[in-house]
Amino acid sequence: MKVISFVNMKGGVGKTTLAVNVADVLSKRLGHRVLLVDIDPQFNATQSLFSGEEYLKLRQEGADTIYDVFANPAPIISMVEGTKTVTPKKLSDIKPTKVSDHLHVLLGNLEIYRVEMGGGQGTEMRLKGFLKYNEDSYDYVIVDTPPTPSVFMSSALLASDYFVVPIKPEPMSRVGIDLLQGVINRVSENNGHGIECAGVVITMAQHQTVVYKDCRRQLQSDTKWKSRLLRRDIPQRTAIAREQGNQKLILDGDDSSAKSALVGVVNEIIKKIDDTSSD
Question: How far apart are the C-alpha atoms of 18 and 165, rounded to whole Å?
Fold first, then answer.
């Protein structure tokens, strides 16, 4: 099982779009067993797969969420179930929700903010512990992380073997990923955990614009990032964001160039992972 976190400290760069669609390609096109973990408190990845009504129904039926992984070892009050006292589950008892035969998701949950308030007690290691119980069930785990350093980002990185950085072509993009690398290095060094970069992916790409060309040129000239920058990128498409809000992903649409670009990105990520594993 390979665990990949999708990370960027800046919002609005297409991180969730990339994470969800990569999970979709790995499961639907390549036939891998995939778990998508929505650890971003905004839970946009979950909303890309389920409508609001579907999500509420799942919660009312008792579906587990990322909150169950991080819940403190004391009774909690469920916002969905009203004032009912709920005893946190054991990590081994938490079950992801089935999206399709090859794709499961650990649902996001706004209530995870309450865990942040009372962190500590090994909180950062709980996602890794949960995944340990599921290592024989999946080939890939895709983790959609929050856009700011937090106990949740640290937990995702500590549970991951690899990270992917989605980057929007803009003047300050390289500065942002340099700062991100610093955060990743600190988390890794402080905990003795190695994690490899499986790619920097340019998203919302408009290939004829100056800002896109400048972004790619800067990254290609940077000794740290040039070997990590993927050749393929995700094109700018208004329809991608709009349809994702209706639970329709790139492979579900009619845009053949966007599909080709996405599959190309996934293949490059897999190759980088395989190359790293063989070193």
Answer: 10
**Going from the N-terminus, what domains does the chain have, and what CATH number goes with each?**
2-278 (3.40.50.300)
Where are the extended beta strands (E) located within 26-161?
A: 34-38, 76-77, 85-86, 97-98, 103-106, 140-144
Chain centroid to Cα 272, Å, comes to 17
Query: How far apart are alpha carbons 257 and 20 in whole angstroms?
Result: 18
Question: What is the phi/psi pair of residue 166, to 5°?
Answer: -80, 135
| Distance from C-alpha of 74 to C-alpha of 194, rounded to nearest angstrom | 32
Nearest-5° angle of CA 61, CA 65, CA 70? 140
In this predicted model, what pLDDT tens digit does every residue of 189-216 receive, in sequence order?
776 778 999 999 999 999 999 999 999 9
pLDDT, tens digit, for every residue of 215-233? 999 899 988 888 999 999 9
Show the DSSP H helices in the chain as ranges.
15-24, 44-47, 52-60, 66-70, 113-117, 126-132, 151-159, 173-191, 210-220, 238-244, 256-278
CA angle 111/189/227 to nearest 5° reads: 95
